[in-house]
Design goal:
Blueprint (H helix, E strand, L loop, with lengths): L2 H8 L5 H14 L1 H14 L1 E6 L2 E8 L2 E8 L5 E2 L4 E3 L4 H22 L23 H4 L5 H10 L4 H8 L1
Helix pairs in contact: 2-4, 2-7, 3-4
Length: about 170
């Protein structure tokens, strides 16, 4: 079993560093798919994807994109979990959506993993208040300027290298 496949089964047992490494991994390895998905979403106003044991539905409502998540083969939905504002410049909007897609996949993966050896608690949907694409994440909510400098100081960690190698 590769390291990536192992992370797909951890769910609530994923550590914050694992989630950040997965986010960066998705940004690097899924870029082409995210660009296509961004075009489809902007053209049709809705997009459905899946990862691990979860399903994601993205919807455009006005100037924002929201995502709804649910466990596969379940009727219970968690609606409007995060939102991102669409911009006027298509290149910036595409980049913003790519980060949004990666974040939503990490959120869903952490809540609806593939079956594995670690027991998962049922019910609820948990995620970090600040997404990885927000500079407030890097400053622990103390402001974007501090977050900008903290992000510059952050180094690629071993987990990302391990994911890329698997």
């Amino acid at each position: 079993m590769s390291f990536y496949e192992e992370l797909l089964t951890l769910g609530q047992w994923l550590q914050p560093t694992d989630k950040l490494a997965l986010y960066r991994f998705f940004i690097e390895t899924q870029k082409d798919r995210y660009v296509k998905d961004a075009r489809i979403l902007q053209l049709h106003g809705e997009l459905k994807t899946s990862i691990a044991n979860g399903e994601i539905t993205y919807e455009v409502k006005g100037d924002y994109v929201f995502y709804t998540a649910k466990k596969k083969n379940s009727a219970e939905k968690y609606e409007n979990l995060r939102k991102v504002k669409l911009g006027k410049i298509s290149t910036l909007t595409s980049k913003r959506l790519q980060k949004f897609f990666a974040q939503s996949e990490v959120d869903v993966l952490a809540n609806f993993p593939l079956p594995g050896v670690n027991p998962q608690e049922e019910g609820g949907f948990g995620f970090f208040a600040c997404p990885f694409y927000d500079l407030n994440y890097y400053s622990n909510g103390r402001g974007k300027i501090i977050g900008f400098f903290k992000k510059l100081q952050a180094k690629d960690d071993e987990l990302l290298e391990k994911l890329l190698a698997s």
